[in-house]
Amino acid sequence: MRIFTKLLNKLKSADFILVTMSTVACSAMSFIFSVYSKSLVPNTPMGIYSTCLIVQTYMNYAQFGVLNAYNRDYPQALGRKDFDAAQKMKNTAMTFMLMVYALIFLCFEAWVLIRYHGSIGVDQYKTYFAFGYAMCPVMILLKSFDDMSNATVRMNGKYNKSAIIGFVRTVLALGIGILVLKVAGYYGLYAMTMSSAILGIILFHKDSLKGARLDFDFAYMKLMILGGLPLLINSLIWTIVQNVDKHVILTFMDTDALGVYTVPTMGFTTMVLVPQTISQVFYIKISHLYGAHQDEKELLDKAGYFTSITSAIAGLACVFVFYVMPVFVRHFMPMYTDGTVATQILIIGVAIYATTMIYGNIFSILKLNKSLIANSVALCIFNVIFSSALVLFAERSINMVAIGTGLSYALYSFLLMVKLSRRFNYSLVKLVMRSWLPLLAIVVPSIGVYFVIYSLG
Known about the structure:
Blueprint lengths: L1 H12 L1 H26 L2 H17 L6 H14 L3 H33 L8 H32 L3 H26 L6 H14 L13 H35 L2 H6 L1 H32 L2 H37 L7 H15 L2 H9 L3 H25 L4 H27 L3 H29 L1
Helix pairs in contact: 2-7, 2-11, 3-6, 4-5, 4-6, 4-9, 4-11, 5-6, 6-7, 6-8, 7-8, 9-15, 9-16, 11-12, 11-13, 11-14, 12-13, 12-14, 12-17, 13-16, 15-16
């Protein structure tokens, strides 16, 4: 009995394990939905869907940094045991987002009606665009509150509960999504995301937003905007970075190519989700640590330890996706086989970047906003230059876009460590050893074996 109790306590202390397992399972279910959707929906409608998702992504920034400030300052307030301040942040963030997204909904729906008046029901592809754009404000409202609810549960220390609820709601959303997709085709592409967000808000409510009240303290809203705006700008630049490849494809190629590129995007999402989730858990932990002790050296040492764990897991995730994606594409998504090589190229560069996610969070925790923005601008520039140059001067294909994007992520990762080393007078070798080394030790021999098997086959 004592051994069982000790084991249970250890599992509770290693809460990131259950969160990660849940994330892997949820990612697998999202992967299944994506694969199933590509077996039913052709390239062009899939490209339209991808275009609408880009619009939805940018729409997220209408919250002006309030949610960014909340995610950064709320766990630090809990670390200081300043519970009144934490509650104030929650109330203000919720109120501001309701106001802003309600206004966006009214304005954007009016624009869709004016823009596509006379085309809905007449032109199939324009009807697809009209429906997708109309869903954007609805989906971003639901997703924003779902994200806030999930993050609040984790910041309150209930990682395991977050993981369990996340798993349950994804199972339910997958069933709903597959059913609607089978019946409605293109229109069903939006079903899983929307149902997942709705279920998340409902299931997380008790431990996140229950007891929250509307708080129209505009002076405090202004403070949160000013505090979170640099993080928002950084996040916006990151979004531009993550969509540069898609913008390059839409500029130099066409919607069909963007539809095929959803396969590399799917590989990107699958590969990066696990290390990203782990880094988010560790981000909360090091935020609590810094909020309690205000010790930069302790922060860096702890971040390095967590980075080593993240790097090893990122390596395993990279190898898994590298091996599995070609099989899934060939057998379950035959219309999208042109995206296989681009997927494998992209995930290697992204895996290298994933190892330094926690290092990047240090700039946020210490409120080094100028450095945070400069880092993201640099990555954006790298991505634009590499992707565009390869497409223009080498070959107009999604493979060139994937190479350019992967190179930009890898270069950014290295420059981030250089900046940390100089800013904190910390060993660059130690930073590299804790981030890149575990990943490369797993990825390099595994990919070597893959090519040996491929050449023999």
